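Query structure, 425 tokens:
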């Protein structure tokens, strides 16, 4: 086995701790990149215009670049190079950054392939790979629908085709009512220089809204603003206001006084597929007629929306009992007895507000906890079954696959891969 000068092998000698790549007959990933670039073929020089803080989309691009021997030039999109010469460009165009839009137009005049990872500038005709915004909005509607919310609202700082697609899908799939639409820029307010004015404006909207209200926000940044406004207004989250963001930015979502639920965009896959599309364009293939859309991974439920908005006190008490006891043997009759009602009355309460049976709610709780343990712990499947109320591991496996489409072990591998992609491995 050849060893490249970058390699730092682990004690077993089967993995490079520099690039986390399994050893091959040539060496590690650094060797293979060097070999491909300097011996086999010319390196493609690709520019990535990224924000100073990298995200999983850029990590997805970087993963493809490592696999295909690209040389990446990374620049701040606020100051795009005017005279850059290379083979292709990956970009995230925004409505606010006109300098970046002008730079992209210059690259295109040079016949340089450019792939955009956003939909914010439909006026510039580019091949695109981006999030399936309709699927994001639909997931948000289902999230609040499963929690029996009848009062809904949308909040975003600005309005663009991205916001429009998410809001329209959210409104279309809302089960019981049409959401209110709160857009800061629609109020005649500038997006730049946000501060106390927006906080007071949001406070007024939140105080006026019928409670409890579920608020879907365009991004985790917007969700954080709603949370701050709730705190300033003295409103409880999630009891008065339930908040759902989008993007699942863990730095934001995990570090609030009330952790924020969020729709999980598959950022790493978007970046990887954008780079793959750019590779095809650099190879001379035709530009696709439509954007390539990547579906979100699901919803990460945290404290900000982990509640059921039940009006019926019997239902509220039943849900509280299930939340405390779902890991124990459970039946609808046992739940009815615990909350002091009849089985028939309990079934009617669940059907009226949730559209599902008590048994279905128990299963939802059990699978939700199992999914958390699979994603965030190393607990073995047999132990997860015991901790979540399943009588044995095969029953958990069958139930999990029926709902989520994957076995627990496959789900865990997918989550591990997604986590590594988010941090750039």
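Result returned for the query:
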């Amino acid at each position: 086995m050849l060893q490249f000068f970058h390699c730092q092998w682990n004690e077993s000698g089967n993995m490079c701790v520099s690039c986390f790549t399994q050893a091959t007959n040539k060496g590690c990933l650094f060797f293979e990149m060097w070999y491909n670039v300097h011996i086999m073929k010319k390196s493609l020089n690709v520019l990535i215009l990224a924000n100073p803080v990298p995200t999983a989309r850029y990590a997805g691009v970087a993963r493809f670049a490592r696999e295909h021997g690209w040389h990446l030039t990374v620049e701040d999109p606020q100051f795009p190079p005017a005279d850059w010469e290379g083979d292709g460009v990956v970009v995230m165009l925004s409505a606010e950054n006109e300098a970046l839009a002008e730079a992209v137009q210059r690259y295109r005049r040079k016949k340089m392939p450019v792939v955009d990872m956003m939909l914010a500038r439909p006026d510039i005709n580019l091949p695109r790979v981006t999030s399936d915004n309709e699927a994001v909005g639909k997931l948000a509607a289902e999230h609040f629908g499963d929690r029996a919310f009848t009062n809904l609202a949308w909040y975003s700082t600005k309005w663009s085709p991205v916001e429009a697609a998410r809001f329209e899908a959210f409104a279309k799939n809302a089960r019981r009512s049409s959401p209110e639409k709160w857009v800061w820029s629609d109020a005649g307010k500038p997006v730049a220089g946000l501060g106390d004015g927006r906080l007071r404006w949001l406070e007024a909207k939140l105080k006026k809204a019928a409670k409890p209200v579920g608020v879907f926000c365009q991004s985790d940044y917007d969700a954080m603003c709603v949370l701050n406004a709730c705190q300033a207004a003295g409103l409880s989250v999630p009891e008065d206001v339930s908040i759902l963001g989008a993007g699942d930015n863990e730095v934001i979502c995990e570090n609030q006084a009330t952790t924020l639920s969020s729709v999980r965009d598959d950022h790493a896959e978007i970046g990887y597929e954008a780079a793959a599309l750019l590779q095809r364009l650099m190879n001379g293939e035709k530009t696709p007629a439509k954007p390539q859309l990547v579906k979100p991974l699901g919803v990460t439920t945290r404290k900000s929306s982990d509640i059921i908005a039940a009006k019926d006190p019997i239902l509220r008490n039943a849900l509280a009992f299930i939340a405390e006891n779902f890991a124990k043997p459970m039946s609808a009759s046992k739940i009815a007895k615990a909350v002091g009602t009849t089985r028939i009355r309990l079934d009617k309460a669940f059907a009226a507000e949730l559209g599902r049976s008590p048994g279905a709610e128990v299963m939802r709780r059990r699978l939700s906890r199992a999914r958390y343990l699979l994603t965030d712990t190393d607990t073995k499947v047999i132990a997860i079954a015991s901790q979540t109320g399943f009588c044995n591991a095969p029953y958990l496996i069958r139930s999990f696959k029926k709902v989520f489409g994957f076995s627990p072990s496959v789900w865990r591998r997918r989550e591990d891969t997604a986590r590594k992609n988010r941090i750039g491995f």
